[in-house]
Amino acid sequence: MSLRFTHETLPQRVVFGPAADHLAAEVARFGERPVVFGGAAPDLLPGAPRHRDVIMHVPVEAAARARAFAAANDADVLVSIGGGSSTGLAKAVALTSGLPIVAVPTTYAGSEATNVWGLTENGRKTTGADDRVLPRTIVYDAELTLSLPVGLSVASGLNALAHCVDSMWAPRADPINQALAVEGVRALSGGLPAIVRKPGDLQGRELTLYGAHLAAVAFASAGSGLHHKICHVLGGMFNLPHAQTHAVVLPYVMELNAPGIPDRLADAFGPGGLARLRAEVDAPRALRDHGFREGDIPAAAAAILAVVPAGNPVPVTTDNLTDLLRRAWAGEEPR
Ligand code: NAD
Protein backbone atom coordinates (compact mmCIF):
# COMPACT_ATOMS: atom_id res chain seq x y z
CA MET A 1 0.00 0.00 0.00
CA SER A 2 1.24 3.50 -0.80
CA LEU A 3 1.89 5.74 2.19
CA ARG A 4 -0.34 8.52 0.93
CA PHE A 5 -3.59 8.73 2.85
CA THR A 6 -5.82 10.89 5.01
CA HIS A 7 -6.81 9.43 8.35
CA GLU A 8 -9.23 10.90 10.85
CA THR A 9 -9.17 9.89 14.52
CA LEU A 10 -12.39 10.36 16.51
CA PRO A 11 -11.88 12.21 19.82
CA GLN A 12 -12.78 10.02 22.77
CA ARG A 13 -11.70 9.29 26.32
CA VAL A 14 -11.36 5.55 27.01
CA VAL A 15 -11.22 4.19 30.55
CA PHE A 16 -10.54 0.49 31.20
CA GLY A 17 -11.35 -0.45 34.80
CA PRO A 18 -14.14 -1.09 37.29
CA ALA A 19 -17.17 1.10 36.56
CA ALA A 20 -17.82 1.30 40.30
CA ASP A 21 -14.51 3.18 40.65
CA HIS A 22 -14.69 5.38 37.54
CA LEU A 23 -18.20 6.00 36.27
CA ALA A 24 -19.40 8.68 38.70
CA ALA A 25 -16.27 10.79 38.16
CA GLU A 26 -16.47 10.41 34.36
CA VAL A 27 -20.12 11.47 34.35
CA ALA A 28 -19.36 14.46 36.61
CA ARG A 29 -16.95 15.79 33.95
CA PHE A 30 -19.97 16.54 31.76
CA GLY A 31 -22.94 17.27 33.99
CA GLU A 32 -24.85 17.02 37.23
CA ARG A 33 -28.14 15.50 36.09
CA PRO A 34 -27.38 12.15 34.38
CA VAL A 35 -30.10 9.88 33.04
CA VAL A 36 -29.32 6.20 32.43
CA PHE A 37 -30.39 4.16 29.38
CA GLY A 38 -30.19 0.42 29.91
CA GLY A 39 -32.42 -2.59 30.45
CA ALA A 40 -30.93 -5.28 32.61
CA ALA A 41 -27.54 -3.85 33.62
CA PRO A 42 -26.64 -3.29 37.29
CA ASP A 43 -27.38 0.00 39.02
CA LEU A 44 -24.06 1.81 38.67
CA LEU A 45 -25.36 5.36 39.30
CA PRO A 46 -27.71 5.09 42.29
CA GLY A 47 -30.28 7.88 42.32
CA ALA A 48 -30.04 8.69 38.59
CA PRO A 49 -33.34 8.28 36.69
CA ARG A 50 -33.24 5.17 34.52
CA HIS A 51 -34.99 4.44 31.20
CA ARG A 52 -35.30 0.66 30.66
CA ASP A 53 -37.36 0.67 27.47
CA VAL A 54 -34.55 -0.55 25.16
CA ILE A 55 -35.49 -2.14 21.80
CA MET A 56 -33.02 -3.52 19.19
CA HIS A 57 -32.43 -1.26 16.14
CA VAL A 58 -34.06 1.77 17.87
CA PRO A 59 -37.62 2.13 16.50
CA VAL A 60 -38.44 5.85 16.07
CA GLU A 61 -41.24 5.52 18.65
CA ALA A 62 -38.71 4.24 21.25
CA ALA A 63 -36.39 7.14 20.38
CA ALA A 64 -39.24 9.61 20.96
CA ARG A 65 -39.98 8.08 24.38
CA ALA A 66 -36.29 8.22 25.35
CA ARG A 67 -36.01 11.87 24.26
CA ALA A 68 -39.11 12.75 26.31
CA PHE A 69 -37.62 10.92 29.33
CA ALA A 70 -34.35 12.88 29.08
CA ALA A 71 -36.24 16.19 28.73
CA ALA A 72 -38.64 15.43 31.61
CA ASN A 73 -35.64 14.81 33.88
CA ASP A 74 -33.82 17.90 32.64
CA ALA A 75 -30.82 15.69 31.77
CA ASP A 76 -27.46 17.29 31.06
CA VAL A 77 -25.56 14.03 30.42
CA LEU A 78 -26.69 10.67 28.97
CA VAL A 79 -25.30 7.39 30.33
CA SER A 80 -25.81 4.15 28.37
CA ILE A 81 -25.23 0.87 30.16
CA GLY A 82 -25.74 -2.22 28.00
CA GLY A 83 -25.15 -3.62 24.52
CA GLY A 84 -25.37 -1.90 21.15
CA SER A 85 -29.12 -1.42 21.60
CA SER A 86 -28.70 0.70 24.77
CA THR A 87 -25.89 2.71 23.19
CA GLY A 88 -28.08 3.17 20.11
CA LEU A 89 -30.92 4.59 22.20
CA ALA A 90 -28.65 7.13 23.92
CA LYS A 91 -27.30 8.07 20.48
CA ALA A 92 -30.85 8.76 19.27
CA VAL A 93 -31.28 11.21 22.17
CA ALA A 94 -27.88 12.84 21.58
CA LEU A 95 -28.67 13.23 17.87
CA THR A 96 -31.48 15.72 18.57
CA SER A 97 -30.34 17.19 21.92
CA GLY A 98 -26.57 17.40 21.46
CA LEU A 99 -26.15 16.08 25.04
CA PRO A 100 -22.88 14.23 25.80
CA ILE A 101 -22.91 10.43 26.21
CA VAL A 102 -20.87 8.37 28.64
CA ALA A 103 -21.06 4.75 27.44
CA VAL A 104 -20.62 1.59 29.50
CA PRO A 105 -20.76 -1.34 27.05
CA THR A 106 -21.72 -4.84 28.21
CA THR A 107 -21.32 -6.68 24.86
CA TYR A 108 -18.64 -6.66 22.14
CA ALA A 109 -20.77 -4.86 19.51
CA GLY A 110 -18.61 -1.72 19.49
CA SER A 111 -21.23 0.98 18.88
CA GLU A 112 -19.66 3.00 21.73
CA ALA A 113 -16.60 3.79 19.60
CA THR A 114 -18.42 4.97 16.46
CA ASN A 115 -20.21 8.14 15.41
CA VAL A 116 -22.86 6.08 13.60
CA TRP A 117 -26.52 6.19 14.65
CA GLY A 118 -29.38 3.95 13.50
CA LEU A 119 -33.15 4.39 13.62
CA THR A 120 -35.91 2.06 12.38
CA GLU A 121 -39.22 3.22 10.95
CA ASN A 122 -41.85 0.91 9.44
CA GLY A 123 -39.32 -1.93 9.45
CA ARG A 124 -36.69 0.07 7.53
CA LYS A 125 -33.41 0.93 9.23
CA THR A 126 -31.72 4.23 8.42
CA THR A 127 -28.16 4.95 9.55
CA GLY A 128 -26.01 8.04 9.45
CA ALA A 129 -22.80 9.46 10.85
CA ASP A 130 -22.87 12.47 13.16
CA ASP A 131 -20.18 13.46 15.66
CA ARG A 132 -22.84 14.50 18.20
CA VAL A 133 -23.62 10.81 18.85
CA LEU A 134 -20.02 9.75 19.48
CA PRO A 135 -19.81 8.99 23.23
CA ARG A 136 -17.37 11.42 24.91
CA THR A 137 -16.14 8.76 27.34
CA ILE A 138 -16.27 4.97 27.31
CA VAL A 139 -15.88 3.03 30.53
CA TYR A 140 -14.95 -0.61 29.77
CA ASP A 141 -15.51 -2.89 32.77
CA ALA A 142 -15.05 -6.55 31.81
CA GLU A 143 -16.81 -7.63 35.01
CA LEU A 144 -20.09 -6.42 33.46
CA THR A 145 -19.71 -8.89 30.56
CA LEU A 146 -19.43 -11.95 32.82
CA SER A 147 -23.22 -12.35 32.69
CA LEU A 148 -23.27 -12.45 28.87
CA PRO A 149 -23.95 -16.13 28.00
CA VAL A 150 -21.17 -17.95 26.12
CA GLY A 151 -23.18 -18.32 22.88
CA LEU A 152 -23.99 -14.59 22.77
CA SER A 153 -20.38 -13.74 23.72
CA VAL A 154 -19.09 -15.83 20.80
CA ALA A 155 -21.52 -14.33 18.27
CA SER A 156 -20.86 -10.79 19.55
CA GLY A 157 -17.07 -11.37 19.53
CA LEU A 158 -17.14 -12.75 15.97
CA ASN A 159 -19.13 -9.67 14.95
CA ALA A 160 -16.21 -7.63 16.36
CA LEU A 161 -13.75 -9.85 14.45
CA ALA A 162 -15.66 -9.06 11.26
CA HIS A 163 -15.15 -5.32 11.94
CA CYS A 164 -11.39 -6.01 11.95
CA VAL A 165 -11.29 -8.15 8.82
CA ASP A 166 -13.55 -5.85 6.79
CA SER A 167 -11.27 -2.92 7.71
CA MET A 168 -8.62 -4.43 5.39
CA TRP A 169 -10.58 -3.52 2.24
CA ALA A 170 -13.24 -1.03 3.37
CA PRO A 171 -13.55 2.26 1.42
CA ARG A 172 -11.41 4.32 3.86
CA ALA A 173 -8.95 1.54 4.80
CA ASP A 174 -5.54 2.99 5.63
CA PRO A 175 -2.37 1.79 7.41
CA ILE A 176 -3.52 3.25 10.77
CA ASN A 177 -6.95 1.63 10.95
CA GLN A 178 -5.46 -1.58 9.52
CA ALA A 179 -2.87 -1.66 12.32
CA LEU A 180 -5.64 -1.32 14.92
CA ALA A 181 -7.62 -4.07 13.17
CA VAL A 182 -4.67 -6.48 13.13
CA GLU A 183 -4.11 -5.98 16.88
CA GLY A 184 -7.88 -6.44 17.33
CA VAL A 185 -7.72 -9.83 15.57
CA ARG A 186 -4.84 -10.87 17.83
CA ALA A 187 -6.79 -9.95 20.97
CA LEU A 188 -10.08 -11.53 19.84
CA SER A 189 -8.41 -14.76 18.68
CA GLY A 190 -6.97 -15.14 22.16
CA GLY A 191 -9.90 -13.80 24.16
CA LEU A 192 -12.82 -15.73 22.63
CA PRO A 193 -11.44 -19.25 23.17
CA ALA A 194 -10.55 -18.20 26.73
CA ILE A 195 -14.20 -17.18 27.35
CA VAL A 196 -15.40 -20.55 26.02
CA ARG A 197 -12.89 -22.45 28.19
CA LYS A 198 -13.61 -20.43 31.35
CA PRO A 199 -16.73 -18.25 31.03
CA GLY A 200 -16.43 -17.02 34.62
CA ASP A 201 -12.83 -15.91 34.22
CA LEU A 202 -12.08 -12.22 33.76
CA GLN A 203 -8.96 -12.58 31.61
CA GLY A 204 -10.66 -13.75 28.41
CA ARG A 205 -13.42 -11.18 28.87
CA GLU A 206 -10.91 -8.33 29.25
CA LEU A 207 -8.93 -9.39 26.19
CA THR A 208 -12.13 -9.69 24.13
CA LEU A 209 -13.38 -6.26 25.28
CA TYR A 210 -10.02 -4.72 24.34
CA GLY A 211 -10.18 -6.43 20.93
CA ALA A 212 -13.77 -5.29 20.45
CA HIS A 213 -12.73 -1.69 21.12
CA LEU A 214 -9.90 -1.82 18.58
CA ALA A 215 -12.27 -3.45 16.10
CA ALA A 216 -14.84 -0.69 16.48
CA VAL A 217 -12.26 2.11 16.19
CA ALA A 218 -10.86 0.50 13.03
CA PHE A 219 -14.34 0.01 11.58
CA ALA A 220 -15.49 3.56 12.41
CA SER A 221 -12.45 4.86 10.58
CA ALA A 222 -12.36 2.45 7.60
CA GLY A 223 -16.11 2.23 6.86
CA SER A 224 -18.21 -0.71 5.63
CA GLY A 225 -16.51 -3.24 3.36
CA LEU A 226 -18.01 -6.13 1.40
CA HIS A 227 -18.72 -8.22 4.51
CA HIS A 228 -20.83 -5.52 6.17
CA LYS A 229 -22.71 -4.79 2.95
CA ILE A 230 -23.62 -8.49 2.62
CA CYS A 231 -24.75 -8.76 6.25
CA HIS A 232 -26.70 -5.49 6.09
CA VAL A 233 -28.67 -6.76 3.07
CA LEU A 234 -29.29 -10.18 4.66
CA GLY A 235 -30.38 -8.65 7.96
CA GLY A 236 -32.61 -6.04 6.36
CA MET A 237 -34.30 -8.13 3.61
CA PHE A 238 -34.68 -11.42 5.48
CA ASN A 239 -34.63 -10.30 9.12
CA LEU A 240 -31.70 -12.57 10.00
CA PRO A 241 -30.12 -12.16 13.47
CA HIS A 242 -27.31 -9.54 13.47
CA ALA A 243 -24.37 -11.19 15.25
CA GLN A 244 -24.99 -14.77 13.99
CA THR A 245 -25.21 -13.59 10.36
CA HIS A 246 -21.81 -11.89 10.71
CA ALA A 247 -20.36 -14.99 12.36
CA VAL A 248 -21.48 -17.32 9.52
CA VAL A 249 -20.64 -15.07 6.54
CA LEU A 250 -17.12 -13.98 7.57
CA PRO A 251 -15.08 -17.05 6.42
CA TYR A 252 -16.73 -17.01 2.98
CA VAL A 253 -15.91 -13.32 2.47
CA MET A 254 -12.31 -14.08 3.49
CA GLU A 255 -12.32 -16.95 0.98
CA LEU A 256 -13.48 -14.64 -1.84
CA ASN A 257 -11.17 -11.78 -0.85
CA ALA A 258 -8.18 -14.04 -0.09
CA PRO A 259 -5.87 -12.11 -2.48
CA GLY A 260 -6.56 -8.96 -0.41
CA ILE A 261 -5.64 -10.48 2.96
CA PRO A 262 -2.29 -9.05 4.09
CA ASP A 263 0.18 -11.48 5.70
CA ARG A 264 0.05 -9.55 8.98
CA LEU A 265 -3.69 -10.19 9.28
CA ALA A 266 -3.23 -13.91 8.61
CA ASP A 267 -0.40 -13.98 11.19
CA ALA A 268 -2.62 -12.27 13.80
CA PHE A 269 -5.02 -15.25 13.73
CA GLY A 270 -2.16 -17.55 14.75
CA PRO A 271 -1.75 -21.21 13.70
CA GLY A 272 -4.87 -22.68 12.06
CA GLY A 273 -6.29 -19.24 11.27
CA LEU A 274 -10.00 -18.46 11.41
CA ALA A 275 -10.89 -22.17 10.94
CA ARG A 276 -9.13 -23.10 14.20
CA LEU A 277 -10.80 -20.22 16.03
CA ARG A 278 -14.26 -21.12 14.71
CA ALA A 279 -13.83 -24.75 15.77
CA GLU A 280 -12.61 -23.76 19.25
CA VAL A 281 -15.58 -21.49 19.93
CA ASP A 282 -18.17 -23.64 18.07
CA ALA A 283 -19.11 -20.70 15.82
CA PRO A 284 -22.50 -20.52 14.06
CA ARG A 285 -22.02 -22.41 10.74
CA ALA A 286 -24.90 -22.11 8.29
CA LEU A 287 -27.34 -19.36 7.32
CA ARG A 288 -30.06 -21.98 6.85
CA ASP A 289 -29.97 -22.50 10.64
CA HIS A 290 -30.84 -18.81 11.10
CA GLY A 291 -33.84 -18.38 8.80
CA PHE A 292 -32.23 -17.87 5.37
CA ARG A 293 -33.78 -19.97 2.55
CA GLU A 294 -32.00 -21.30 -0.53
CA GLY A 295 -34.69 -19.73 -2.73
CA ASP A 296 -33.74 -16.27 -1.37
CA ILE A 297 -30.21 -16.46 -2.80
CA PRO A 298 -30.89 -14.81 -6.22
CA ALA A 299 -32.70 -11.81 -4.68
CA ALA A 300 -30.00 -11.43 -2.03
CA ALA A 301 -27.22 -11.60 -4.65
CA ALA A 302 -28.91 -8.93 -6.79
CA ALA A 303 -29.38 -6.58 -3.81
CA ILE A 304 -25.78 -7.05 -2.63
CA LEU A 305 -24.35 -6.56 -6.12
CA ALA A 306 -25.88 -3.08 -6.18
CA VAL A 307 -23.98 -2.01 -3.02
CA VAL A 308 -20.56 -3.66 -3.45
CA PRO A 309 -17.98 -1.13 -2.21
CA ALA A 310 -15.58 0.29 -4.74
CA GLY A 311 -12.04 -0.95 -4.17
CA ASN A 312 -12.94 -4.50 -3.10
CA PRO A 313 -9.76 -6.49 -3.80
CA VAL A 314 -11.59 -9.01 -6.03
CA PRO A 315 -14.25 -8.19 -8.66
CA VAL A 316 -17.66 -9.24 -7.31
CA THR A 317 -20.01 -10.84 -9.84
CA THR A 318 -23.43 -12.49 -9.73
CA ASP A 319 -21.64 -15.84 -10.07
CA ASN A 320 -19.11 -15.55 -7.25
CA LEU A 321 -21.65 -13.87 -4.96
CA THR A 322 -24.22 -16.60 -5.62
CA ASP A 323 -21.58 -19.22 -4.86
CA LEU A 324 -20.64 -17.41 -1.62
CA LEU A 325 -24.27 -17.19 -0.48
CA ARG A 326 -25.00 -20.81 -1.39
CA ARG A 327 -21.98 -22.05 0.55
CA ALA A 328 -22.84 -19.85 3.55
CA TRP A 329 -26.47 -21.04 3.38
CA ALA A 330 -25.38 -24.69 3.44
CA GLY A 331 -22.51 -24.15 5.90
CA GLU A 332 -20.00 -25.83 3.56
CA GLU A 333 -16.45 -26.07 4.84
CA PRO A 334 -14.76 -22.74 3.94
CA ARG A 335 -11.75 -23.19 1.63
P1 NAD B 1 -28.09 -5.89 22.31
O1 NAD B 1 -27.62 -4.63 22.88
O2 NAD B 1 -29.47 -5.92 21.73
O3 NAD B 1 -27.94 -7.03 23.40
C1 NAD B 1 -28.32 -8.38 23.08
C2 NAD B 1 -28.99 -9.03 24.29
O4 NAD B 1 -28.02 -9.23 25.30
C3 NAD B 1 -30.08 -8.17 24.91
O5 NAD B 1 -31.13 -9.02 25.29
C4 NAD B 1 -29.39 -7.57 26.13
O6 NAD B 1 -30.29 -7.27 27.18
C5 NAD B 1 -28.46 -8.69 26.53
N1 NAD B 1 -27.25 -8.28 27.24
C6 NAD B 1 -26.43 -7.25 26.92
N2 NAD B 1 -25.38 -7.23 27.75
C7 NAD B 1 -25.53 -8.26 28.61
C8 NAD B 1 -24.75 -8.78 29.68
N3 NAD B 1 -23.56 -8.26 30.01
N4 NAD B 1 -25.21 -9.85 30.35
C9 NAD B 1 -26.38 -10.45 29.99
N5 NAD B 1 -27.15 -10.02 28.98
C10 NAD B 1 -26.73 -8.94 28.29
O7 NAD B 1 -27.13 -6.46 21.14
P2 NAD B 1 -25.70 -6.00 20.58
O8 NAD B 1 -25.26 -7.09 19.66
O9 NAD B 1 -24.81 -5.55 21.65
O10 NAD B 1 -26.07 -4.71 19.73
C11 NAD B 1 -26.79 -4.85 18.53
C12 NAD B 1 -27.32 -3.51 18.07
O11 NAD B 1 -26.27 -2.55 18.03
C13 NAD B 1 -27.87 -3.60 16.66
O12 NAD B 1 -29.00 -2.75 16.58
C14 NAD B 1 -26.73 -3.08 15.81
O13 NAD B 1 -27.18 -2.56 14.58
C15 NAD B 1 -26.18 -2.00 16.72
N6 NAD B 1 -24.78 -1.66 16.45
C16 NAD B 1 -24.49 -0.38 16.10
C17 NAD B 1 -23.19 -0.01 15.84
C18 NAD B 1 -22.88 1.41 15.49
O14 NAD B 1 -21.74 1.75 15.22
N7 NAD B 1 -23.86 2.29 15.48
C19 NAD B 1 -22.14 -0.95 15.96
C20 NAD B 1 -22.46 -2.26 16.33
C21 NAD B 1 -23.79 -2.61 16.58
UniProtKB/TrEMBL annotation:
Residues 154-267 form the Fe-containing alcohol dehydrogenase-like C-terminal domain. This is Maleylacetate reductase. One of its GO terms (molecular function) is alcohol dehydrogenase (NAD+) activity. InterPro entries: ADH_Fe/GldA, ADH_Fe_C, Alcohol_dehydrogenase_Fe, MAR. CDD domains: MAR (cd08177). The keyword NAD applies. Keywords: NAD, Oxidoreductase. Residues 11-141 form the Alcohol dehydrogenase iron-type/glycerol dehydrogenase GldA domain. The keyword Transport does not apply. It comes from Actinoplanes italicus. It holds the Pfam family ADH_Fe_C.
